[in-house]
């Protein structure tokens, strides 16, 4: 990649440049990168890193080896392997994905919040479980401590689907008329939800069910 500046505007030119042979050792690769500035400035592009119309969610797995993305049209989820710079798999879905939530450190388990009020759990082989929530969902987050999958929607309730037991627990009910997003503090396990009235409400999932 070459960078030039025209009228204080940087222009990045991505073109064919030197590549490293796959058969050389990691030690020799590091040595070549130190000695050759052109190799250090190269950009590696992932093949098929696109959707026909638009991408809606992009997530990097905790181990950094995979990129999971959802998009349209038609609704689908793609998994890219960063080491190979290529598409690992692609799955078509029945509805647009509002939110993608990782359940483990890699691509093998994930949850999808659909625009048709569905929550779909995927495993490495494909769709594993699908259920429906009463209102149209807006956000998802996952509690690794007790396997609760939280979902906020167009209402005051925060739905709790326990993936270990496979049941819905009693939902939390907030004072906001609707919630737009939610997140979980992984250190203290506090659940925070942002309401349409501009307030943030907190719950402690470690306490008894409400």
TrEMBL record:
Sequence ranges assigned to domain Nucleolar protein 10-like N-terminal in this UniProt record: 1-207
WD repeats mapped onto the chain: 172-210
Taxonomic path: Eukaryota, Metazoa, Ecdysozoa, Arthropoda, Hexapoda
Name of this chain's protein: Nucleolar protein 10-like N-terminal domain-containing protein
Keyword annotations of the record: WD repeat
SUPFAM superfamilies: WD40 repeat-like
Gene Ontology annotations for the cellular component aspect, listed alphabetically: 90S preribosome; small-subunit processome
GO biological process annotation, one example: maturation of SSU-rRNA from tricistronic rRNA transcript (SSU-rRNA, 5.8S rRNA, LSU-rRNA)
PROSITE patterns: WD_REPEATS_2, WD_REPEATS_REGION
Organism annotation: Zophobas morio
Pfam families in the record: Beta-prop_NOL10_N
Domain of life: Eukaryota
InterPro entries, per database record: Beta-prop_NOL10_N (IPR056551), NOL10/Enp2 (IPR040382), WD40/YVTN_repeat-like_dom_sf (IPR015943), WD40_repeat_dom_sf (IPR036322), WD40_rpt (IPR001680)
């Amino acid at each position: 990649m070459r960078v030039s500046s025209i009228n204080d505007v940087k222009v990045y030119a991505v073109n064919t440049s030197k590549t490293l042979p796959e058969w050389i050792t990691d030690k020799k690769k590091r040595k070549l990168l130190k000695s050759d500035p052109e190799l250090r400035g190269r950009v590696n592009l992932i093949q098929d890193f696109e959707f026909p119309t638009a991408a809606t969610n992009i997530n990097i797995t905790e181990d950094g080896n995979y990129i999971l993305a959802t998009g349209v049209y038609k609704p689908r989820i793609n998994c890219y392997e960063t080491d190979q710079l290529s598409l690992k798999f692609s799955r078509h879905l029945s509805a647009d994905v509002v939110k993608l939530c990782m359940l483990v450190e890699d691509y093998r388990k994930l949850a999808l919040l659909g625009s048709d009020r569905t929550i779909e759990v995927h495993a490495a082989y494909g769709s594993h479980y699908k259920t429906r929530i009463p209102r149209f969902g807006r956000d998802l987050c996952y509690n690794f401590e007790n396997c609760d999958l939280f979902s906020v929607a167009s209402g005051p309730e925060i739905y709790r689907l326990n993936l270990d037991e496979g049941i819905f627990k009693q939902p939390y009910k907030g004072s906001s008329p609707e919630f737009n997003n939610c997140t979980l503090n992984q250190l203290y396990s506090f659940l925070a939800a942002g309401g349409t009235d501009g307030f943030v409400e907190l719950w402690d999932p470690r306490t008894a069910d409400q």
